[in-house]
Amino acid sequence: MAPATTIYVCSSCARESARWAGRCSGCGEWNTLIEEVRTPASGRARGHRPRRPTASPARPVSLAEVAAAEHERLSTGIGELDNVLGGGIVPGSLLLIGGAPGIGKSTLTTMALANLVAAGRRTLYVSAEESAAQIRLRAQRLTLGAALQIPVIAETDLETVLATLERERPEVCVIDSVQTLHCAEMSSAPGSVGQVRQVAGEIMRVAKALRTAVLLVGHVTKDGALAGPRVLEHLVDCVLQFEGERERTYRTVRATKNRFGSTNEAGVFEMRDHGLVEVLDASARFVADATRAPGSVVLCAIEGSRPLLVEVQALVCASELVPPRRVVAGLDRNRVALVLAVLGRHGGVGLGAADVFVNVVGGLRVDEPGADLAVALAVASAAKRIALTDSGGQKPVSCFGELGLTGELRTVAHGERRLREAAKFGLDPVLEPGGHRTLRSALATAFTATGRPQARAAA
Ligand code: TYD
Ligand code: MG
To answer: Is residue 47 predicted with pLDDT exceeding 80?
Structure first.
């Protein structure tokens, strides 16, 4: 068998070269050459192989003849995680858990394995980042009895990991992380696109043969800049995204791709001293904690397919900078810029010379157009220094809706569910597209002085 060689393939035009270069000689694109391993006899090489003369044609069958596989599920023992996965881990599937460093990926996967061990499943934890002693320290913090029973290896060499998988044949295996495993045949550094693709591809090949479910842990930087996990998204069955801010307590897990379930689910967790805890009453907490001060409003958001009430806060103050500052946490910056522009043009709240800060309380991230109205109301409330509460001054005003560029309020998905969630906590009024067609009319209702002691005082 010829020895393995590495070649460089352009990710744009697929031209192959023996040596790396900054620019592809085929298409002229920069930084597109990615290292790949070629083992001629293994048949893994792609491209222009002559067809095997022995290959016999396959007989296509109609889909009706195909037996529908009912997927058995392995429960991770973490309700929110099982829910996001569509009922648990499908045996033999490949999952990718992406998230910023320190968010809790190792903690979540360790907890899942501990529960699987307790349920009598064969597992394996491969750590290419931490020593076995460090993993043990983490496991000790968790209040899960079986955490110390998880079989672990601390290994960065891909071949060793594959050999271990073949011998141990676990039902569920965690690879922490895919960027730190290293394929010795390749000269590029661990974590480079070529390495990550090779590592994931090899693990998938072995895992599918053994019917091992693999959870690949991958780091993404805040803006998702690191190419590593991104190139894996088409390869894996399921992509979970772990979001939130490291310094804050709340984190969300959501599926952005799921071949065995919907991508509508999201789970909310809280990082405590003894691991991640599921937060089942998130709405209740956020409503109770809402400040009801000027600049605060409650947003009826949808996390996955579940309604969630969160507090959106804004601060508006005179700026000494040109251009003034726009600081946004938990929302899309560009979306907030758009809302501020609409607010200035159609809501009569000009912010040209003011710094504006907008934040979703609790470190949550809300990525949906339904948050527009909440941003507009919070900023308007902060700018006018008028608190938005119900007529009794007790409950915060809640809202949802998308803003159009002409100042209209647009309908968003799951309106009924959002209203029901707000009603559950007795929030009234709820400003939403069903009751108001424009931003102007929503603002007018929010700031009506009638029966509003603070508003009257401020006016
Ligand atoms: P970790 O799971 O190591 O994050 P990741 O693998 O995504 O990089 O843990 C993240 C942080 O959580 C770490 O700074 C320590 C903290 N933590 C707790 O607060 N409580 C706990 O029980 C554990 C295990 C970690
Ligand atoms: Mg980790």
So the answer is: no
